[in-house]
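1st attempt posting a full record on here, be nice pls
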Amino acid sequence: MRIELLLTGNELMSGVTVDSNSAAIARALEPLGLRVGGKVTVGDDLGRIGAEIARLAAGCEVLIVNGGLGPTSDDLTAQALANVAGVELAEHPEALAQLAAWCTRRGAALNAANRKQAWLPAGAEVVPNATGSAPGFRLRIGGCEVLCTPGVPGELRRMLEEQIVPWLAALWPRREPVVITRLQLFGIGEATLQQRISDAMPDWPVGVELGFRAGAPTVELKVSSFRRTDEAARIDCERRVRELFADCIVGSGELTLQGRVVELLAAAGRTVAVAESCTGGLIASLLTEVPGASAVFEAGVVSYSNRMKQRLLGVAEATLAAHGAVSEAVVREMAHGVLALGGADLAVAVSGIAGPDGGSAQKPVGTVWIAWGAPGRLHARELYFPLARKLFQTMVAATALDLLRRELQGIEAEPRYFRDRAPPR
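the predicted structure (as tokens):
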């Protein structure tokens, strides 16, 4: 099945909004063995949208149009599709009922602007939107099913799960199983992943697909098979990959570092507290975004100034004077202080120079000290992340979480990033 994607919106063309919807669509289709052949992005121009719908629909079986279904004058998808199909817009009873129910749930009146969303091309079939106000819809043009979807990411994702994927699965049933394993890894780059796999597994089978998705902070490694005859080979490849990168693997699927740490803490019946300076509360924020964190997270202290390090965490003035805020001695005292404050089983503490100012020859911008562990088993390490401020904070927080993960899993081997991120001397 040939599938094309058309994205609409001036905000996408200007860069104000970063496209995440095409990735969500592609990932939702993958388990069906379906892939997007190509995607086109256009602004809010009725003629251009219509021209692209006509062009793309002539060469594929399914065209997914994303965006332009809302209540404002720049939402043009319904009119563009009607123009291409040679039909009029008509108020659709099912779409109107969905809009009325949406307004009732919010205690709002169904005004003329909202009601615009119920005017669809004549003959279109409504695709329910369980989250937002704008109904999705589809209409056949020649040999192509044109499926129009909302641009709001949360609405699209739910529609994909509940409506679109089941519809496509029925439209294009597969006789062969699609099996995909996604592994999330931290502390190793995709180039190194590829090289180590090539060196260790030069006999990688043709019927098993290997894929990578680089990101910050984790990298996704994907092992897939699309035929029943390749499943045994996929299982063997996955086993060998897991063995090769055992200490770097955070988990599978969409599991995050913070999710894994909360999972491990809960399984062990242990709690954690964090003391942060350069990350400004990011570690605590990441942990507490995970459902169930309240059972394992005791406290988080953002002690940005030296005065607050002393007052809140009991860091000695003499320690700060002798070693500076970004030092092993200070992060150890920060960790001890938050452990005493929160009564947690484990702690992590970070203090670093996020930049762009504040560095020195001895401690350049990007330097960070991290302490982690239990009261009688505290470790500390100096690392170097010469990155832009926000990315520095992201990677420091992720590294702190990964060190907690390794501690909870009892991994004794030093992580690769201890060498790769060693400070310059």
